[in-house]
């Protein structure tokens, strides 16, 4: 684990100095750890663990949008886990309320059906549909169709700068909408 | 969108660089300060005997206390804008203005006084002080909250209260140049009460707006 954490700190420093590949590796490397933590949190709160993926995505978005609050001289893991804990508590609270309201409607279906290991995350995908068309198209092109910024710019006849702006705004408004819901 | 896809879009956005929280906070405060000053000069203005008052060390002490409060609260607010931060090790910053004030009260006690203690404490402008410090704080409080929203505070209410201290510290600095009550006893009572009101408002608003 220790080595893991040193590796994260190194990757995050590279990411901040402009290495997109290092950033991608870092996010992929922290995701399983976040997923395990989300599952633990859900099961401890007596909630179905198959909802963990929404929490993981919520944490990843916050990590991304708040990474300027990480002190590059400090280890990365405590910062990451502080955000993860905060987001986990938040969504447990939200889910707690929602489940309380919905349980009567769905109790029978829940009991009848075997649950899948982990349900695909639905919240980010649902909010994606509510974004302004340009932000949604750019996000979809880059995330789902895995097009590069350059290809996306060509496809929508936009400048690369405009694609970058739309991408960032899209991610920021996704996060804002997840918080409001 | 599955998580792998989300990660791809985050990595593609890596080139976006957000400004440091301190920079955004300063910018917001600088934008709001003229609004507070405008209210101050339109409604209050500096006291007419300011030139003689400046020779009174207890008049000057008011500015030392309020500015020390604003500056140490900024330091604490910036520290708390990081998700893994706690007040431990930083809370004592806020004791600096309190210490200055206590030293001032001690100093005044040792000097011969024309007015009895309760008269100095009650002063002439306590209602005014309790009204105007919060009013002058308001634009700065909004600015401080906007600035801190850019961070990731672990405890929104605590950060909101500190934002209240930042704004009330500056507002009290403006107000101090109008106020004719210079006794540290008056400052310790009424300024503190007014500042605490703003901090409480900051905590309540912060709870709602500072969640990241």
Proportion of beta-strand residues of chain B: under 5%
The gyration radius over C-alpha positions of chain A equals 18 Å
Helix content of chain B: over 70%
Residue fraction in strands of chain A: under 5%
> From the helix content, strand content and strand pairing of chain B, which structural class follows?
mainly alpha
Q: Tell me the overall shape of chain A.
A: globular
Low-confidence stretches of chain B: none
The greatest interface here is: A-B, 48 and 30 residues
Poorly predicted parts of chain A: 100-116
The third-level CATH topology of the largest domain in chain A is Rna Polymerase Sigma Factor, Chain: A
Count of domain modules of chain B: 1
Level-1 CATH class name of the largest domain in chain A: Mainly Alpha
DSSP summary: helix tally of chain B: 9
Mean pLDDT of chain A: 86
Number of helices of chain A: 8
Assign an overall shape of chain B: elongated
Terminal Cα span of chain B:
22 Å
Q: What is the structural class of chain A?
A: mainly alpha
Task: Give the CA-CA distance, first to last residue of chain A.
Answer: 35 Å
Supply database-style keywords.
heterodimer, A: 181 residues, mainly alpha, Rna Polymerase Sigma Factor, Chain: A, Arc Repressor Mutant, subunit A, 2 domains, B: 212 residues
Summarize the structure in words.
The complex is a heterodimer of chains A (181) and B (212). Chain A is built from eight helices and no strands. Chain A is mainly α and 181 residues long. Chain A has two domains: 99 residues, Rna Polymerase Sigma Factor, Chain: A; 60 residues, Winged helix-like DNA-binding domain superfamily/Winged helix DNA-binding domain (Arc Repressor Mutant, subunit A), CATH 1.10.10. In chain A, α3 packs antiparallel against α4 and α6 crosses α8. The longest helix of chain A is centred in the middle third of the chain and has 37 residues. Chain A is globular and about 50 Å long. About 9% of the residues of chain A have low confidence. With 212 residues, chain B is mainly α. Chain B has one domain. Helices cover 72% and strands 0% of the residues of chain B. Chain B has nine helices and no strands. In chain B, α2 runs antiparallel to α7 and α7 packs parallel to α9. The longest helix of chain B is centred in the C-terminal third of the chain and has 26 residues. The chains are: A mainly alpha (181), B mainly alpha (212). At the A-B interface, α2, α3, α4, α5 and α6 of A face α1 of B.
